[in-house]
Amino acid sequence: MRLEAITWERLTDATADRIAGLTAADGGPWLRVAVDGAPAAPTAELARDLSEALRIRGRPVLVVGSAGFWRPASLRYEYGKRDPDAYYDRWLDIGALWREVFDPLDPGAGGTGRVLPDLWDPVTDRATRSPYAELPRGGVLLLHGALLLGHWFPFDLSVHLRLSPAALARRTAEDDHWTLPAFARYEDEVGPGETADVVVRMDDPRHPAWHRPEP
User: Fold this and answer.
1) pLDDT digits (tens, 9 = 90+) for 173-206
2) Which molecular-function annotation in GO is an example for this chain (predicted)?
3) What is the pTM assigned to this prediction?
4) By the 8 A CB rule, do 159 and 200 touch?
5) From the DSSP assignment, how many helices (H) and strands (E) are in the chain?
6) Which secondary structure element, helix H or strand E, spans residue 8, and what is its range?
7) In 3-state terms, what secondary structure has residue 19?
8) Which terminus in the chain has less CB density within 10 A, N or C?
């Protein structure tokens, strides 16, 4: 994979331009974009910057963090609090994301644009009770978080913030090193560096490099 050095500002602008020029694969009025990466990668920050850039370009945006769709602790920790396979397979409530985020943006399912931005607070381990958000026609969903690819989510564009295994271990808090086998499994089973539309190598976050296949 050929990588090109780039600044975060240029990367944000170029990616926003590409998103703004996209047509949804299902022909619907909404776009769905993933910003995928381990917790050590700044997925939330990039999603925020992209949302600002897209609004400047006249596109309504809804930013959703996947951690708001983790399952309750009783289900996440069924096999212990540090089980990497449970982290990989069970923490993210895939069914809830389909039901509350993707189906409302599916014209074939009678999509209304009414998206639930979060369902569960993993810190308090309680339902968030957030109100639904209306994403107008022509709007863009930006879903950010870890382990987002490989679930058949209908993304129109996916961005993967990539860390080498050594960089991921170095930048992951020691208490969270138990998650590293899950990301190794993600590399083996999903290959996000090969399947994402845009790959950003950020072993040194001050000097990112990216691979951007032409649309």
Assistant:
1) 999 999 999 999 999 999 999 999 999 999 999 9
2) kinase activity
3) 0.96
4) yes
5) 8, 11
6) helix 8-20
7) helix
8) C
